[in-house]
Amino acid sequence: MNTSVRQSELFTKTKKETPTDEVSKNAELLIRGGFVHKEMAGVYSYLPLGLKVLRKIENIVREEMNKAGGQEIFMSALQPKENWEKTGRWNDLDVLYKVTDSAGREMALGPTHEEIVVPILKNYVTSYKDLPKALYQIQDKFRMELRSKSGILRGREFMMKDMYSFHSTTEDFEKFYEQMKGVYKNVFERAGIGHITYLTFASGGTFSKYSHEFQTITPAGEDTVYVDEEQGIAINKEVLNDEVLGQLGTTRDKLSEHRAIEVGNIFDLKTKYSAPFDLTFTDEKGGKLPVLMGCYGIGIGRLMGTVVEALADDKGIIWPEAIAPFRVHLLMLGKEADVAAEAEKVYSTLSRASVEVLFDDRADVSAGEKFSDSDLLGIPYRAVVSARSIKENGIELKKRTEEKGKIVSIDELLTCLK
Amino acid sequence: MNTSVRQSELFTKTKKETPTDEVSKNAELLIRGGFVHKEMAGVYSYLPLGLKVLRKIENIVREEMNKAGGQEIFMSALQPKENWEKTGRWNDLDVLYKVTDSAGREMALGPTHEEIVVPILKNYVTSYKDLPKALYQIQDKFRMELRSKSGILRGREFMMKDMYSFHSTTEDFEKFYEQMKGVYKNVFERAGIGHITYLTFASGGTFSKYSHEFQTITPAGEDTVYVDEEQGIAINKEVLNDEVLGQLGTTRDKLSEHRAIEVGNIFDLKTKYSAPFDLTFTDEKGGKLPVLMGCYGIGIGRLMGTVVEALADDKGIIWPEAIAPFRVHLLMLGKEADVAAEAEKVYSTLSRASVEVLFDDRADVSAGEKFSDSDLLGIPYRAVVSARSIKENGIELKKRTEEKGKIVSIDELLTCLK
Questions:
Q1: Shortest alpha-carbon distance between residue B43 and chain A (Å)
Q2: DSSP classification of residue B19
Q3: Which residue among B50, B90, B311, B364 is least enclosed by CB atoms within 10 Å?
Q4: A73 vs B140: CB contact, 8 Å cut-off?
């Protein structure tokens, strides 16, 4: 990935107009900024700026999964019908896209990968000595959402990290599950939304009474959660009952209600998927037992959309440093030769120091437009070179989240960005 | 990506048996080595070792595309039917998978992306000043191959790099096209098959009389090509005629016949796809002209399969260094405490020096099995720690392509791998 890019060479441009067919803030801002392109409801292509953000989120997730002992794989989107029939989900899963070839053979288009990962493991697991294992991938998923109007928060096609863990004992599973809570916390901290993201007690779906979600507080959320600030945890509205309150040692008067987006979840699958595929292992005594499983998801695109929804202000996006497409947005204001020369000098100095910089070197764009584009794009630092900054012997540096900038020398700029 | 891995912790294992449902060498060796898992004909999942190779090829391709001025994007697999109707390919393209949702709406599952990239560009190109541009992605493609028996050489789902270039003049297009020939040459050189890969004159399909392919010589190839060794070029059998011989300044007696695999292609699309979408630009005189296009493909998985077909010997795979899953396969032979201690020391020394190493630390596996696994996996360097190597004060180092190893000290080992 190129660390430095000239805005004049980028093929995308910002747009002033709000797209008429989008109701969500994330889609509006990401399309206006040239981060994504809408193909149809719930389906987006990622343009250079958007892909840079997506890849940074991917890499944070990948590093944390590797640290947790996950082994990365890449499973197919086309999946055998037989596998889905075995788990009963060929007919039961509403969101499953089915693909038929001209010979009449049917396949599934993967909305999730339990039906694929379990048969893979079956090739390699025979004994308790082969366990535990954790496998993950970062890959495109397909789900038949009939109405999609949440931008990249809920798509028909979306990038997701899905991890599956395999254990010989409940104790071992529970240890890993607890560890994953911390791993997920790290991911959301590193992605810049840790302070508004809560481990949330939620419904377990069909195969487990309860599960854990990570919910990020933002008015655009589809879910309602009740936050216990003191404990730093939350309860999804759907499971707010006395049993849960008791289990978590909290009471209704300690809770505050918020709208939230689910940015990750962890599930106890037990033997729900290992049983139909007969994924078993031989224990120390020679007995044959089903493998216990957990699954752990994070929507990469959804996390990107959540950051936009939760952190943007009325001028545009605000990217946390760790996932911003660039660290610095360098603006050249004015066409004077000394301004251009100084801006080029700052650009090459930052590039040589491996600071990721987007250089707005466009000659035919007004200062006002450059400032509003910069606010829209949401790069953490804005560095301005203008006749005024040169007169003051420096560069005007401002954080996206600050109201006012200050004049710094090129050395001070490098120190600030260290 | 973890640079060092203990074989005892890897969830895959090698297999002695040849899979019964595979006729291709690449699938046989890749499945036996635990690089890939077959989901169904033409559909494979990539396991940790295979994904490492795939990512290395991806990164070589990405670096070369960036150097050529390409901007990376990521386009959707789900594609609007209208776009495919506009180009006439909704009904004409045999390999197109169509997906229908429960509301009866149809979509295409992308086999290629002209129908997506052109509408994206239409948002951003208005003037000749916006050109040239080159966009590329590395992404999963779907093609309805009714019979698939070439392993990862020709799949129904496969990872591909597709680039599209956009120009205002034929001259500019031709300059870029010539440049891309060199870029492709670099890719195949770096991937370790440059010496057997030829720029090949081929049929242009429906929209151009001729095109260029890159063909790698190997008996498993589906194509027949005629190589002019002196010029270092080839001609695909389908266009071997006097016109082509004349154009290339060669004669039939200078050509040798070979089987070959097409590992890349570059096409002059002219206005074939810009016209139906009305992708135009305003020239310097204010006239409105259609944008000229080129397209440039490399199958990432196919390149991986080609390397296996072309370079493997009867013991197993031989990975070129630049795309090998690891640089060194460290084998611990024997259970003696001093052997284990020495092997651990070598492993941590190599790991600290950032040498990618697979450490066969398995305690219950014989020396013979370890050697044959090592040959099967095809890692470039094999380093053996055994009672014998310790007696000789060193480590036995052997390249996968060499018959005999030599004893080296740990310092010499590091120097060899520098």
A1: 7
A2: P
A3: B364
A4: no
Cβ atoms of B312 and B320 closer than 8 Å: no
H helices within B103-229, ranges in order?
114-122, 170-190
Contact B127, B136 (CB under 8 A): no
Is B47 within 8 Å of A73 when comparing Cβ atoms? Answer: yes
CA–CA min distance B377, chain A (Å): 17
Please indicate whether, in this complex, the C-beta atoms of A73 and B120 are within 8 angstroms of each other.
no
Residue B238, classified by CB atoms within 10 Å of its CB into exposed (0-12), middle (13-18) or buried (19+), is: exposed
Contact at CB, B39 and A123, closer than 8 angstroms = no
Task: Give yes or no for a cis peptide into A132 (omega within 30° of 0).
Answer: yes
* Shortest CA gap A303–chain B (Å): 17
Domain that holds residue B378: 326-416
Tell me, yes or no, whether B321 lies in a domain: no
Q: Do the Cβ atoms of A200 and A184 come closer than 8 Å? A: no
Q: Do B80 and A37 touch (CB under 8 A)?
A: no
The complex scores an ipTM of 0.97
Q: Rounded to a whole number, what is the distance in Å from the CA of B233 to chain A's nearest CA? A: 32
Same domain, A49 and A181: yes
Query: B1 pLDDT band (50/70/90 cuts)?
Result: very low
Last residue of a domain, one of A311, A339, A359: A311
Give chain B positions within 8 Å (CB) of A45.
73-76, 116, 120
Is residue B286 a part of any domain in this protein?
A: yes
User: Which of B5, B35, B74, B168 to mutate: most A Cβ within 10 Å?
Assistant: B74
Instruction: List, in sequence order, the alpha helices (H) in B73-134.
Output: 81-86, 89-92, 114-122
The reply to whether residue A73 touches residue B45, judged by beta carbons under 8 angstroms, is: yes
Burial-class residue B163 by CB neighbours within 10 Å (0-12, 13-18, 19+).
Answer: buried
Instruction: Flag whether A270 is in a domain.
Output: yes
pLDDT at B210 over 50: yes
* Contact at CB, A46 and B74, closer than 8 angstroms: yes
Residues A206 and A333 in one domain: no
CA distances from B305 to B24, B120, B202, B263, B302 (A): 10, 32, 22, 10, 5
Q: How confident is the model at residue A275 (pLDDT cuts 50, 70, 90)?
A: very high
Q: What's the domain count of chain A?
A: 2
Residue where a domain stops, chosen among B267, B285, B311: B311
**pLDDT at position A1:** 46
Quick one: A306 and A341 in the same domain?
no
Q: Are residues B259 and B123 in the same domain?
A: yes
Residues A307 and A352 in one domain: no
Nearest residue of B to residue A72, measured between CA atoms: B48
- In the three-class reduction of DSSP (H, G, I as helix; E, B as strand; rest coil), residue B379 is classed as coil
Same domain, B295 and B268: yes
- Nearest chain A Cα distance for residue B91, angstroms: 13
User: Is B358 within the bounds of a domain?
Assistant: yes
Asked whether residue B268 falls in the same domain as residue B343, the answer is no
If asked whether residues B380 and B250 sit together in one domain, one would say: no
CATH of the domain at B188: 3.30.930.10
Please judge whether A146 and B102 are an interchain contact, meaning their C-beta atoms are less than 8 angstroms apart: yes
pLDDT tens-place string over residues A182-214: 999 999 999 999 999 999 999 876 667 788 999
Q: How many CB pairs under 8 A join A and B?
A: 131
- Measured CA to CA, the distance from residue A247 to residue A237 in angstroms comes to 15
Using CB atoms, pick whichever of A51, A109, A116 lies closest to residue B45: A116
Whether the Cβ atoms of residue B56 and residue B323 lie closer than 8 Å to each other: yes
Indicate the residue type of A158.
F
Q: What 3-state DSSP class applies to B284?
A: coil
pLDDT tens column, B265-295: 999 999 999 999 999 999 999 999 999 999 9
Q: Over the stretch A40-50, which tens digit does the pLDDT of each residue have?
A: 999 999 999 99
- The proportion of chain A whose per-residue pLDDT surpasses 70, expressed as a percent, equals 99
Tokens of B147: 């019979």
Residue of B nearest to A64 (CA): B1
Check residue B40 and give its pLDDT: 95
